[in-house]
From TrEMBL:
NCBIfam families: Sig70_bacteroi1 (TIGR02985), sigma70-ECF (TIGR02937). It holds the Pfam family Sigma70_r4_2. It comes from Chitinophaga silvisoli. Belongs to the sigma-70 factor family. ECF subfamily. Residues 25-91 form the RNA polymerase sigma-70 region domain. This is RNA polymerase sigma-70 factor.
């Protein structure tokens, strides 16, 4: 068969001409393998990438642009496929590492200990609040009452309730930050 120009190649691939497809596979797969190997540094993975690129070319042949040289299309497709594979591998490794860390026996005990320490600090700060301020805060955050309900039950203005809540939150926040 005579050497094919880019238009003949694209037309052949679009028409699913197996002979044209075989010609471009034989002609371009070594250089695509070389590109993939540079990125992945693994021969089997590089071969898989080349297979994927040519399989995708076959599947999406109707989308080929006859103005773009086929070797440029294949090279770009190979690079993109390699980069996607690398990103996927990195995500899988990060996920596996995260899973391993959360399943380590010391991690759960460590988190429980941190939680108990933080709770003790919180309770200590809460005890140091002025009595009315602490009562308003507990009614709001522990009992879940609205500012209007607290105002009515304690017979204080709603603005006083907001002032107590703001003061309590500020002191708790500062107290926790200072103890760390």
């Amino acid at each position: 068969m005579l050497p094919l120009n880019n238009t003949d190649i694209v037309t052949g691939v679009r028409n699913r001409d197996k002979q044209v497809f075989e010609i471009i596979f034989n002609q371009f797969s070594p250089s695509m393998f070389s590109i993939a190997l540079r990125y992945l540094k693994d021969q089997e993975e590089a071969q898989d990438i080349v297979q994927d690129v040519f399989l995708n070319l076959w599947r999406t042949a109707e989308n080929l642009d006859e103005r773009a040289p086929i070797q440029h299309y294949l090279a770009r497709a190979t690079v993109n496929t390699c980069l996607n594979r690398i990103k996927k591998t990195q995500r899988q490794q990060a996920y596996a590492k995260e899973q391993q860390q959360t399943q380590e026996p010391g991690t759960i005990e460590h988190l429980l200990l941190e939680h108990k320490e933080l709770e003790a600090q919180y309770l200590s700060i809460l005890e140091k609040l002025p009595e009315q301020c602490r009562r308003v805060f507990e009614m709001s955050r522990i009992k879940g009452l609205s500012p209007a309900e607290i105002s009515q039950q304690l017979n204080i203005s709603i603005n006083t309730v907001y002032t107590h809540l703001t003061t309590a939150l500020k002191k708790i926040r500062l107290g926790l930050l200072n103890q760390q």
